[in-house]
Write a structure and sequence with these properties.
The structure holds two protein chains of two kinds. Chain A is an alpha/beta fold. Helices cover 36% and strands 21% of the residues of chain A. The mean pLDDT of chain A is 97. By secondary structure, chain B is of the alpha/beta class. Chain B has two domains: 311 residues, 3-Layer(aba) Sandwich (Rossmann fold), CATH 3.40.50; 35 residues. In chain B, helix 1 crosses helix 3, helix 1 packs parallel to helix 12 and helix 6 runs parallel beside helix 7. Classes of the chains: A alpha/beta, B alpha/beta. At the A-B interface, helix 3 and helix 4 of A face helix 6, helix 7 and helix 13 of B.
Chain lengths: 333, 375
């Protein structure tokens, strides 16, 4: 990413504003782009990501739908077959499952079933993850279900700059993209230069270089890992933090390169560790870096429990201390 | 103690013979009039419908035979439902778009889809594999009812394009219980989408009768969603044609969706893997045999003196020819190259699929090398 100069094209945005601006750009540049979801029109979405878009682009392009997630994704598929590029908002992570069949059985497979004749350029935006003190079904991390499904691409932004660019890139993709937005980072701000040249959508990024241990994260956990790396630096240990950005495809090459230098790898996500993204990263990196690893790949994640009540969610979610604990264990192996 | 989950009788036993049934041709082959729906066909048009009915039945019988011979893994027969499919299929205009289940072989025929294309998935050489845009005929959908939402979405696209097309989405009596179908009704109603819901009520969802799917006659469900629903004699090709034409015209006029319940009967098994003798009676089957969609049109043609002996002889020959073409086509249908499974997972390249394809090819190439080394 080119550094954001303080120019006329650069301004402070929260992640919500960055997504809103990115969606607006896509609506402006391609008349086939539509946004569909619950409460996204007049209300502007429960997180206000679509604020003002219906007013400017009309009810036919920013569509308040009936409250039926399978219906939203199913009709989005039909619209895509008719040549449109629907962007679907699922209101919260835990509400995506009524649409699971349409996503996994219909959307993901239709391009292959047609032997490539039809394309399904659909983006499904899902605010995901915990840490906001919500009631149940509002704090989940369903990424593994979707990354496990061939035909879907899965990405997650961790900061406003990526949010601005990645949403536009996802909309431009001819494949279905599950777009995971870390809801607890919606209000973090950064300088976004709308004239910069974006990084490719499906690549990872080293967000903090270091030689002692590689720490891999995505979405909401990138900020947590950067905090951990800052704390570790005070003790004289430089962690290399990689923001995966894309979970399918997953940029193993960058992780491999880093681990071959550091010899240590910790993977962090909110989703349960068991059969999660971290398990795949661990397996693949172990294959590729077996003789470079000085310790087994360690995972820091949620537990194999339903997402807990919010009063105890801080004990479920990986935090700075749990990340550093894993780094300590890896370095002491 | 067993719970009486059926709550006594369901809706009054529904023979489909009530006054709501739209019929233009009786099972005996008599033309009758209907106050709301009429049809005026030339002799050639009558003969065209008859030809369609005969040929799709022949195609279907051939496919069933090919499954018995081990050439197809499975077949879902349309036997008995020819009139519902040809009638509705011949109501379509080229710009209209069809979202079928996996049994719409007659509609596919009307759209000009090569019958051999339909057999690929049943032979196991692809999962569909035709270009839906070529004939405006979407791939078969196996998960029950899912395609009705795709049809409504497509119709929402037609609305936005301002084009003159409309959509017909097919489903069955069992599918009417699915959430997706009910969501499709809701979306179509509130967005006033130009879509016709064509339900072939063939009385059986594998082994479950309609009484297990609904407490009111199926067509009446539309009223609760805010659009009209009608019941047509699904074994009457003329009525199916007239009613579907009217529903499509209505959709094109911007008057929104309509539900057509084609009251028909699945004369065969659900699929070749099914055994209907376990759940339904021969008497029921015999009763429906008397309502056969082809016999009634044939009877009408004979009474009216429509069609020369040469026409019927030529149709017989064409039918034989179709059977032969299907037989040979299936038997010579090549298996796909195994590496093709990696070909269309994504529209653009995906590093994981690319890597796995390379590993797959290297693995298989290793055997070729071993062979060349003299094994």
């Amino acid at each position: 990413m080119a550094p954001a100069e303080s120019t006329g094209t650069s301004r402070q945005m929260s992640m919500v504003q960055a997504l809103n601006t990115g969606l607006r750009k896509s609506l402006e540049s391609d008349p086939k782009v539509l946004i569909m979801g619950e409460d996204i029109g007049k209300l502007g979405g429960v997180f206000r990501v679509t604020d003002g878009l219906q007013k400017d682009f009309g009810e036919d392009r920013v569509v308040d739908t009936p409250l039926a997630e399978s219906g939203i994704v199913g009709t989005a598929i039909g619209l895509a077959l008719a040549g449109y590029r629907p962007v679907v908002e699922i209101q919260f992570d835990g509400f995506v499952f009524p649409a699971y069949d349409q996503i996994v059985t219909q959307l993901a497979k239709m391009h292959a079933r047609s032997l490539g004749y039809v394309k399904l350029p659909i983006v499904i935006r899902i605010p995901f993850g915990g840490g906001i003190g919500a009631v149940e079904h509002h704090s989940e991390s369903p990424e593994a279900y979707f990354a496990h499904t061939a035909g879907l691409r899965v990405v997650s932004c961790s900061n406003p700059v990526d949010a601005y660019w990645m949403i536009q890139q996802a909309i431009a993709s001819d494949d279905p993209v599950i777009f995971l937005e870390p809801k607890r980072r919606y209000w973090t701000k950064a300088e976004v230069d709308t004239a910069a040249t974006p990084d490719p959508l499906y690549g990872s990024r080293v967000v903090r270089p270091g030689g002692a241990c590689t720490v891999v994260a995505y979405g909401p956990m990138v900020a947590t890992c950067l905090e951990a790396a800052a704390a570790a630096a005070e003790e004289g240990r430089e962690l290399e933090v990689i923001d995966l950005r894309s979970l399918s495809p997953l940029d193993f090459d960058a992780v491999e390169k880093s681990v071959k230098r550091t010899g240590h790898l910790v993977v962090v996500h909110e989703a349960p560790s068991f059969l999660g993204i971290g398990a795949e990263v661990a397996a693949t990196i172990t294959e590729r870096c077996f003789y470079h690893l000085e310790a087994p790949v360690l995972r820091v994640g949620g537990y194999h429990t339903p997402y807990p009540p919010s009063r105890v969610e801080e004990d479920y979610l990986p935090d700075l201390d749990r990340v550093l604990d894993a780094v300590d264990r890896s370095l002491a192996w | 103690m067993a719970v009486d989950s059926t709550d006594g009788t369901l809706f009054p036993p529904d023979s489909g013979a009530g006054p709501e049934l739209i019929q233009l041709l009786t099972p005996e082959g008599e033309r009758v009039e209907h106050p709301d729906y009429s049809i005026d066909l030339s002799d050639d048009e009558y003969l065209g419908l008859y030809r369609d009915l005969v040929l799709v039945r022949r195609f279907d019988a051939e496919a069933t035979a090919l499954q018995r011979q081990g050439e197809l893994g499975l077949w879902a027969s349309l036997l008995g439902q020819e009139a519902a499919q040809i009638g509705s299929g011949r109501a379509l205009s080229p710009n209209d778009y069809v979202f079928p289940t996996y049994r719409e072989h007659g509609v596919a025929w009307c759209r000009g889809v090569d019958p051999l294309n339909l057999l690929g998935m049943f032979r196991g050489v692809n999962h569909g594999g035709w270009d839906p845009r070529e004939n405006n005929f979407q791939l078969y959908t196996i998960v029950i009812g899912a395609q009705t939402l795709h049809g409504v979405g497509y119709a929402m696209g037609v609305q936005r394009d301002g084009s003159d097309g409309a959509v017909v989405t097919y489903f069955g009596d069992g599918a009417s219980s699915q959430g997706d179908v009910n969501e499709a009704f809701t979306f179509a109603a509130v967005f006033n989408a130009p879509v016709v819901f064509f339900c072939q009520n063939n009385q059986w969802a594998i082994s479950e009768p309609t009484e297990r799917q609904m407490k009111v006659p199926l067509y009446r469900r539309a009223a609760g969603f805010g659009f009209p629903g009608v019941r047509v004699d699904g074994n009457d090709v003329l009525a199916c044609l007239a009613v579907t034409r009217a529903a499509l015209a209505r959709a094109r006029r911007g008057e929104g969706p309509m539900l057509i319940e084609a009251f028909t009967y699945r004369m065969g098994a659900h699929t070749t893997s099914d055994d209907p003798t376990r759940y339904r009676s021969n008497a029921e089957l015999e009763e429906w045999r008397l309502k056969d969609p082809i016999e009634r049109l044939k009877s009408y043609l004979h009474k009216q003196g429509i069609g020369t002996p040469e026409f019927f002889a030529a149709l017989e020959a064409e039918s034989e020819e179709l059977g032969k073409r299907v037989r040979n086509g299936v038997r010579t249908m090549p298996d796909p190259d195994p590496v093709s499974m990696f070909a269309h997972v994504y529209a653009d390249s995906h590093t994981l699929v690319d890597r796995e394809r390379a590993e797959f090819e290297a693995y298989h190439a290793s055997f070729v090398d071993a062979g060349e080394d003299g094994h």
